[in-house]
Here is the input.
Amino acid sequence: MKVAVILPAAGLGTRMTKGAAEKAGTSRKQFMLLDGSPVLVHTVRKFAASERVGVIVVAVRGEDTGWVREMLAQEFESGRVRVVEGGNSRQESVENALRSLGPEYTLVAVHDAVRPFIDLETIHKVFDEAAETGAAIVAVPAVDTVKQVIRGTTHVRIRATLPREKLVMAQTPQVFRYDLLVRAFESARQDGFIGTDESSMVERLDVEVSVVPGSDRNIKITKPTDMELAHLFLREETRGAQS
Here is the structure.
């Protein structure tokens, strides 16, 4: 089983405050430094550590392709990590990366470039589940009460309280058979559908998607407080590796 991993990393980091961006040296969270290395590099390392991963495709903005390719080549073996030009949205970036792959890859995993704390055990569990069912994602149970609302011109009102035991919060990796993911993107493009994640596009094909338990540590770095937590998690990881 050969697995290809796609890391969409073309975002502009609009949720970071100006102060946090200046402190980190960039407004783009995927390039902010954790212990001297960009968040993106930490994420690539997690998948590079798996012998099941044949290739990692990083989708970045066009102006970043050159220096990101050089940066990754300094640490990762030639051909194992590729850099392609992304698009104006996550969906376009993932589709561009998917076009660079072929059917020799049984499974394709899509993972947020700014989730650097995914663990190898969970990676392999979701690979195994997708190999069996064709489609699987990592998710955690909803712990907060979720309200469905109606947005008016002046007020937002509650319409219903959703049953929490039936809800999960989607994370990544999201892993699919290569042919299934290609078909999902083709269908979305033809219908003009914009999905919030890859699973939402696959679900449109009436395909059941399995859920593998994730972790609260598998955070997505989107705001300044996430970087503070990331530094804490990295220190804990480093201590664990040294013990």
Remarks:
- The longest strand covers residues 168-177.
- Residues 3-242 form a domain with the Spore Coat Polysaccharide Biosynthesis Protein SpsA; Chain A fold (CATH 3.90.550.10).
